[in-house]
Amino acid sequence: MDTKEFRQWAHHFADWMADYYEDIEKFPVKSQVLPGEIGAKLPLFPPAESEDMENIFIDFREIILPGITHWQSPDFFAYFPANGSFPSILGEMLTAALGAQCMIWETSPAAAELEERVMDWLKLMTGLPQSWSGVIQDTASTSTLAAILSAREKYSGFGVNNAGFAGYEGLRVYCSTETHSSIEKAVKIAGIGRQNLVKVQVDDQFRMDVKALRKAITGDLEAGLKPCCVVATLGTTGSTSVDPLSEIAGICREFNLWLHVDAAYGGTALLLPEYRWMTEGIERADSIVFNPHKWMFTNFDCSAYFVKDKESLIRTFEILPEYLKTATRGQVNDYRDWGVPLGRRFRALKLWFVIRSFGVDGLKSRISEHIEMAKWFERQVIASDGFELLAPRIFSVVCFRYHPLGLSAVEVNHFNQQLLQVINKTGKLYLSHTKLNGNFVLRMSIAQTETRQHHVEAAWESIRTIAANLNPKLHNGEKS
Fold first, then answer.
1. Is 271 helix (H, G, I), strand (E, B) or coil?
2. Residues 6 or more apart from 66 whose CB is under 8 A from it?
3. Pairwise CA distance, residues 143 & 194, whole Å
4. CATH number of 100-346
5. I need a surface site. Which of 61, 73, 366, 466 has the fewest CB within 10 A?
6. What separation in angstroms does the CA of 366 have from each of 302, 369, 373, 453?
7. What residue ranges do the domains of the chain occupy?
């Protein structure tokens, strides 16, 4: 493909992308294909000869697109969002065109210096300590792994990196029972072991129980184990509960433990001053992560990771082979020393585009709109017969279920599981679920970039109608 043909197809693809967003509500939000259906349409062997882009693009539209779940649809209410926006897409296009490998300052000075600046902007925007240092990781999972590895090395005086775990067996990491699965994964990868992850019970609002945390730590010390790190969450995945950070920070300081704060979803709400209560005590933490690719309209992937002590982070990860030695080392940020991968994408560019295009006030306005829509949905649940809330609403996620009278706990769970399947099968909207206290819970996550009030109202009407129709079908009219 030469530049003339590239130009032709680039314009064609740009037109298709614009059409896609204009028509996105016409697609079923959740892909309706069956397992193996897409693979059955793909050749078993790669082509020996060059294929025409026309045919490739036809196959994209006819084979690939039916197997896509449309995360950018305004009717996407599942999980947490993986949001994008037009400014972010344009930034990604330029990133792809540049094709820069931004591992160190020398390989693209603008990439390193822009990353440093946008991370400083994020600190100002969210009220995080200005003395902290930030780096863009791919996901919160990677950021959490970086935190736990740093905690391990700081506890061992950086001995585990050099000599392995000899003398440092029995390191312990603490989180709540509602904490994201990435913490368990990180503990495994870090070599600490799943058996050394202590899941602390939660209170009636699904927040970490601080008394139970203290008891777990003191019990481990008495048993000769080695408390190392605590992970607190601002916006848990299931219920979006917020752990009592200040109290947890006090315990961590008392026992000299690394405190990592997982705010992957909820951290974006820190743009709003009324949510800064969540980070009371953050100055006593050691690290925090939140994802602009969740609720700050920046295309996946882009995770903002901040640390109090950047030297501990760098010392945990740095390796300096001869081919990476430069004359500028020590004068600039070489971000390949700030995390697991050597190779790094130019993620700061799209984030810069988003912040400049929306403006801080524009970002705050859109986030506030999502929260107001969630408040509206919450009011409908409370006011409607048969529906009930299962967790406090803090951000823009509402945890609820339909509870027909006369059903046992098992039957109610089964009913809501069936309800979710029917809702998602319509293709009109997409919800996900969790379990809280053994209850099957529907999650209405209102945070997609282009979602507006009328989308939420239509979703609520669909949910109510399907629940009403499903009840007599399942129970032959005997219970309601």
1. helix
2. 31, 32, 33, 38
3. 18
4. 3.40.640.10
5. 61
6. 19, 5, 11, 12
7. 1-30+69-83+360-480, 100-346
- Asked whether the beta carbons of 122 and 305 are under 8 A apart, the reply is no
Of 82, 122, 134, nearest in space to 360 by CA: 122
Per-residue pLDDT of the chain (480 residues; tens, 9 = 90+): 999 999 999 999 999 999 999 999 999 999 999 999 999 999 999 999 999 999 999 999 999 999 999 999 999 999 998 999 999 999 999 999 999 999 998 899 999 999 999 999 999 999 999 999 999 999 999 999 999 999 999 999 999 999 999 889 999 999 999 998 999 999 999 999 999 999 999 999 999 999 999 999 999 999 999 999 999 999 999 999 999 999 999 999 999 999 999 999 999 999 999 999 999 999 999 999 999 999 999 999 999 999 999 999 999 998 877 667 788 888 889 999 999 998 999 999 999 999 999 999 999 999 999 999 999 999 999 999 899 999 999 999 999 999 988 889 999 999 999 999 999 999 999 999 999 999 999 999 999 999 999 999 999 999 999 999 987 644 443 333
Give yes or no for a cis peptide into 361 (omega within 30° of 0).
Answer: no
Tokens at 473, concatenated:
């079908």
Angle at 364 (CA atoms; ends 352, 129), nearest 5 degrees: 70
Query: Please, what CATH class does the domain formed by 1-30+69-83+360-480 belong to?
Result: alpha beta
How is residue 454 written in tokens? 């009328």
Cα–Cα distance measured from residue 81 to residue 294, given in angstroms and rounded to the nearest whole number: 5
- Bridge-partner residues for 445, per DSSP? 397
- Which pair of tokens denotes residue 263? 């705010």
User: Are 330 and 160 contacting, i.e. CB atoms less than 8 angstroms apart?
Assistant: no
Find where tokens 């050394």 sit: 196
